[in-house]
UniProtKB/TrEMBL annotation, chain A:
Gene Ontology terms for molecular function: dipeptide transmembrane transporter activity
Domain of life: Bacteria
Family membership: Belongs to the binding-protein-dependent transport system permease family.
Protein name per Swiss-Prot or TrEMBL: ABC transporter permease
One GO cellular component term: plasma membrane
Membrane topology recorded in Swiss-Prot or TrEMBL: Multi-pass membrane protein
Residue spans crossing the bilayer: 9-30, 100-123, 135-162, 174-193, 228-254, 274-297
Keywords (A to Z) from UniProt: Cell membrane, Membrane, Transmembrane, Transmembrane helix, Transport
Compartment list: Cell membrane
All residue ranges annotated as the ABC transmembrane type-1 domain in the record: 96-297
Automatic annotation (TrEMBL), chain B:
Pfam families, per database record: BPD_transp_1 (PF00528)
Cell location: Cell membrane
BP terms from Gene Ontology: transmembrane transport
PROSITE patterns: ABC_TM1
Family the entry assigns: Belongs to the binding-protein-dependent transport system permease family.
Keywords tagged on the record: Cell membrane, Membrane, Transmembrane, Transmembrane helix, Transport
First-listed, main subcellular location of the protein, grouped into a coarse class: membrane
InterPro entries xref list: BP-dependent_transpt_permease, MetI-like, MetI-like_sf
The name this protein goes by in its record: ABC transporter permease
Domain ABC transmembrane type-1, first and last residues per copy: 96-285
Membrane topology per record: Multi-pass membrane protein
Residue spans crossing the bilayer: 35-57, 100-124, 131-153, 159-178, 217-243, 263-285
Domain of life: Bacteria
UniProtKB/TrEMBL annotation, chain C:
Record organism: Paenibacillus roseus
Domain named Solute-binding protein family: residues: 107-478
Family label: Belongs to the bacterial solute-binding protein 5 family.
SUPFAM superfamilies: Periplasmic binding protein-like II
Descriptive protein name: ABC transporter substrate-binding protein
Region (Disordered): 30-66
Signal peptide stretch: 1-29
Biased composition (Polar residues): 43-52
Keywords: Signal, Transport
GO terms under biological process: peptide transport
Gene Ontology cellular-component terms listed: ATP-binding cassette (ABC) transporter complex; periplasmic space
InterPro entries noted in UniProt: Peptide/Ni-bd, SBP_5, SBP_5_dom
Residue ranges of the TM segments: none
Pfam families in alphabetical order: SBP_bac_5
Amino acid sequence: MFQTIVTRLLTSIMVVFGALVLVFVIVYLLPGDPALSILDPSTATQEEIDLLRKQLGTDLPFYQQFANYAKDMLNGDFGKSLLNDEPVLSKIWTHAPATLLLAFTSTLIAAVIGIWLGVLSAIHRDRWIDIVARLVGLFGISMPTFWSGILLILLFSVTLGWLPAMGSDGWQTLVLPALSLGIVGSGFVVRLVRNSMLEVINEQFIVTLRAKGLPQRLVMYRHALRNALIPALTIIGVLSGELMAGTVVIETVFSRQGIGRIISDALMSKDLPVIQGVIFFSAIVYVLINMLVDLSYSMIDPRVRRMQARR
Amino acid sequence: MSGKETVLAKTVWKYDEKPPISRQRLLGRMSVPNLLIYGAGSIILFIIICGIVPGFIAPYSPTDMAYDIMAAPSFAHPFGTDYYGRDVFSVVVHGSRDSLFIGVASVLFGGLVGGLLGALAGYVGGVVDTFIMRCIEVLMTIPGILLALAIAAALGPSLFNIVLAVSLSAVPGYARVLRSQILSIKGRPFITAARSIGTPGWLIFVRHVLPNSWSPLLVMATIGLGTSILVGSGLSFLGLGIIKEIPDWGTLLSQGRGYLTVAWWISTFPGLAITLLVLSVNLMGDRLRDKIDPKQKRA
Amino acid sequence: MSRVKKNWSASLLLLSLTLILAITGCSGAGNNSKSPENKEAKASNTTGTATNKGAEDNGQPVSGGELTFALAGAPDTLDPHRNGWATGARVFRVIYDNLVVLDSDNTVKPWLATEWTVSPDGKSYTFKLRNDVKFHDGTPLNAEAIKYNYDRAINPETKAITARSLLKYYESAEVIDEYTVKLNLTTPSQAFLRNLTQPQVGIISPTAAEKYGDQYGHNPVGTGPFKFVKWEENVGVTLERNDEYAWGPELVANHGKPYLDRLVFKVVPEEATRIGSVQSGQLLAADTVPPQNIAALKNDKKTHIYQVNTEGLPFTLFINQSNAPWNELKARQALQLAIDVEKIVKTLYLGTYDQAWSSLTPGTFGYDASLENGIKPDVDKANQLLDELGWVKGSDGIRVKDGKRLAIRYVEGSPNREKRQDIASIVQQQLKQIGIEVNINITKDIKVVVFENDDYDVYGNGQMNPDPEGLRTFYHSKTQNVAGKHNLGSIVNENIDKFLDEGLVETDPVKRAEFYKQAQQEISKQAIIIPIYVFPYTVAASSKVVDLKFDTLGYPLFNDLYLKP
């Protein structure tokens, strides 16, 4: 067990650094020139622009820029934003909590709605409940989040006045953005849970349990669901990553604080330190979530636990 | 025109009075799920026709900014007109081509590349597997839309680049799914049996492994078709969309969102078109999967 | 199978379904009712003058309260000298004061300076300062501080943008005594005094600037009516009242401390959210109201619309003459005749924006009103001009000459600010009629595409500016800001150069205005540009908000503002 965790950690570190290399290449390919976004071409002289490029190190050839970048990375030096000189780490530190909270809440909503609808439609396969549940789920994944977000604002903020339209202070501001992200996520979960429930329902042990005369509810929720949840858990792990990405759009719609907005701004202005900082952060979160998902397999599924013990 | 309608109505009424087949059998064949599938099929067919011969279906030119601006849906303009004074219905019909292209091309491209990588990793195993999967993991640490955003920003917003951006961000998903499927199939007795009688590796792969493992890929592809249109729409929202004379649905939706409280039809109809396409394709995908996957056939 | 349980689940499902339907349904119903009002307002609004009707209230101003104000864009910095975007200036306008202020009648009035004299050669300005002014950090305002400020702004290390072009002719400052400072210019400039009224040359605390260094933009300290409290990136900026403030300019009624306790700017980029947050009462005001929402908000009793046309250069399409055939007058005239600006402005802005007719906006010093309604769109004439140049329509309707298609690279920035991308789309259709293919390039990277790579035939730009001297950056042949080669339109015109140079030094206002009028006429005659619209700064505010005011460049002023209890 200990050994698996160690190898896991080592490969994770490799993956994170791989991601940083990839980020560097992408940012290098991005059009734009930070020196020109800091200075104004209509007033600055060519010498000043060249000087700034030198200061920023953007005038160096690719391999030298990469060497500098790798050196800073290995020293854990994330640098300052090229645009407003703010240290990247403090930037992430202030903005990450709001994004994590949003991603977590929407994953939770996606899981609850998704599992509920998925089980419902599996139990009532091909009945109208099944069809409605699936349509509701599909409805979620057939709308862009900015669209459902605006609809939610118009309904709950402007028309009904129940919830705030924007901001990131207090739980009230969390409801609408989490809902519009969660609805999308639930669409994926519904399908997955339905499928794996259908597989499990036909398995021998469920048939046996039913034959024994156990109540339907007990069989479904206690035994079938538990087995069906394993693949669902994997997708929830992946999903939470996707929902983190969804915050890029949703944070803009609801004008929330968060790293999603930072990275889209940084990408547009080619602000390499900020981009790499955020990607580093999201890579770590991704690795952690997947570890958690793996660990929780053994908690839900006794078979996996036994397998690990044997190893 | 009206003559035809009455004939049709009569036929239906006749059925009702004296069904030629028993009601039980009719309902059995036309159960709600079946009806849905037929509905979905005809919607997809219609959208494909729109994509191939839009000029045939659209009543007006999609670039003609000649009508009253922001007129509500009417007989002349069933979907209303937009803020340029274009006929929304015609724009949506013409927009189906690019929307379908984005959806289908990114699924094909992403699925092919991802599937190939996943198959290679899963079937060959060993160092190849480790290498491919580490690369895939690296890709996965960068959230899909960010990757798409970065690629679109790097290469500039064109239809092809959007497809590239969207499909690349979908590659890891396909690769992982196919790999895990192949891994689970590889250990099955029938593969061992085939190997023991000396079947060459590639033949086992083509004959036995692939046919048994591609069904989840199909389901992913049906979802992917819709999501890629939506990701394109998201890019447009973030300011990296394609500006064409005839925009795709995702772009239309994003461009019209500011008019929601003034002229809801501008963005709602393209949105509805996306929803219908995604719903139909997914329903078809589900049905296909149910048919292919032997495990899910009812006992 | 338990029937009760099944029904429970089923009803929950039904509920969620109804909810989704309600969302879509609601927005639909709401809109239908609004569209006729919209049309009505459009008709009554075609006069198009700035409507600046604040909430009328006869009561006395009330102290206290907090104003929340949604901005469309995030401020770039709160360091005025380094600022380049108007959205930042809207925030720090109230943190800083200037030496002088531009009154609503376009004359320069005292502010931190009580009086000033100009040397006979027009090359030095001597300012007497108020002696009772303190920065928020306690530093006293004196001649030394003024010198520090302007020297800092022109120092390349500061990386100043707008401030530097405003102080273009500033050379040095001399401290005469504690409260007297003399500013020396390289060239006499009639624009200098007006430029000193701009927020980008607001006076910052030298102590704070030294203390914070490159982090000063996050720790601003001025002498203005509001003090900086905090700035959370992408969330907003919080300011609080400066209780010692007693040096308000003539532009506002309340020269003492403002009535508000706190002023909170929020950054809300998405239009629907920004407007929604005011309609729902979550915030009290929001700026940059989309034209399509203006009518509905005007008719709403709970909200007011403020709209101020800004001075300077309107949004204008520049035709890059360094590329053939646009170096030919006839080709440019064809564009001028084929692009129906009136239709563009009416279609996209629904009567809320004014059409621009000249290279300056109405209200700017020296504006030539005689150019209004001067050009009538005429497709036939445009076709004829292109025919004369030998461009012949090909089979696809696009003109060809010597195997070359008549195509325009039209560069526009992203996002769709003030519907500028939509302008491009309409121009594309309009020019198709005369056989010109328009290839729209939407880019986030205007500075590289346009200024570095010179990769455009048409590019639109505008600028808020207090003085017609602003024309120089765009029209003078000495300005070579595109790839170091030429100005935005690649304009080399001796007459324009002469008018601008003489306008800069002419001390008689009447004669000076005449020079700029001649410059505008020449620009129009040579079909150098296609002026599109005059940008109005719009704010939607709750009717609780009383006496929100603006200066001539549309920067909001909060000195007189109070909240109805």
